[in-house]
Amino acid sequence: MARPSSTKKVSRAAQTGGGRTTRGSQSWLYWALIAAIVVLGVVGVGVSREQRRDELAAPAGNVPPLAGRDHWHTAYGIYICDQFIDPITDQRDPEGIHTHADGVIHVHPIVRRAAGRNAKLGKFFDAVRLDLDDTKIEVPGGKTYREGDDECDGEPGIMQLKVKGREEVITTDIADFVFSEDRQVITIAFAPKGADIPLPPSEATLDNLSDVEPAGDPASVPPATNPDGTPVNGGDETSTTVEGDGSDDATTTTAAP
After folding, report:
1. pLDDT (tens digit, 9 = 90+) per residue, 168-189?
2. Would the N or C end of the chain have less CB density within 10 A of its end CB?
3. What strand order describes the sheet that includes 144-146?
4. Pick from 206, 179, 90, 195: which is nearest to 138 by CA?
5. What distance in Å separates the CA atoms of residue 103 and residue 204, rounded to the nearest whole number?
6. 194 and 238 both lie in a single domain
7. Residues 143 and 234 in one domain
8. Residue 39: which region, alpha, beta or left (left: phi > 0; alpha: psi -120 to 50)?
9. What is the pLDDT of residues 123-158, one digit of tens each?
10. Residue 105 sits in which domain range?
11. How far apart are CA 245 and CA 93, in angstroms?
12. For the stretch 140-154, what's the b/e string if a residue is b when 16 or more beta carbons lie within 10 angstroms of its beta carbon?
C-alpha cells in the first residue's frame, strides 16, 4: 500500500505536467526563440547597411546597378600611347559584367558580389582576363606596358582612366571604378602624364546595341505567324520582343492597333 506522502507527490506531479522536466523544456524553447530573433535582427541590420553602402558608392544622384534588375552599358577603349587597340573578344562571365566584342561593357550583374558598390571595372578585367593595375597593363595576346619601363615617343607612360564628363583623369585605384550610371564612356590609357586622351570610337555603339531592341513604329512590326506560316488569328496580332533583366529575351503577342 502506498504511503500517503508518496501519493501526494504523484498527484502533485500529474497536476504540474511533469514538474521540473517540463519547466526545463519550456525554458530551452524560450531561449532558442530569443536567439533566433536576435540572429534575424542582426541579419536584417546587415542587409540594410549593405544596401545603404550601395547607394553611397556612386556620385550624388546616381545609384549603382542592382543584381538582376539593371542592364547598363559603358563604352570603353584601351588606348596605348597614341592609338586604340582592338576591342577584347576573349572572356568568361560568371557575374554578369562582360562585353560582346563591341567595345562596350555590358553591366547587368547576376549576383550581389558584382552589383551595387561591387559593380567595379575590376570585375570586367576579371571577365576578359585583362591583367591591369595602377602601374601596368598587359595587352591581351601582346606586350606588357609598365610605368618606369616603357615610354611613348620618349616620354614615360603612366596608367590612366579618363571618364567622359570628368575633368581629372583617374590614376589610382583604377580597378575600383564603380559603374554609377548607364551610358558612361571611359578610356583606359597607358600614355604620358597630361596627354590628350581621346574618347573611344565605341561611344557611337551605345546608340546601336546588339542586345537592346531599337524603338520603332509598332505598325512596322511584322505580324505574328503560326508554325505553318499563316498569320495568328488572321493577322490581327503582332509579335514584339521585350528585353529582360539579364535573361533571354521573351516574345509576347499583343493585339495590333
Report:
1. 999 999 999 999 999 999 999 9
2. N
3. 131-132, 136-138, 144-146
4. 90
5. 10
6. no
7. no
8. alpha
9. 999 999 999 999 999 987 889 999 999 999 999 999
10. 72-207
11. 16
12. beeeebebeebebee
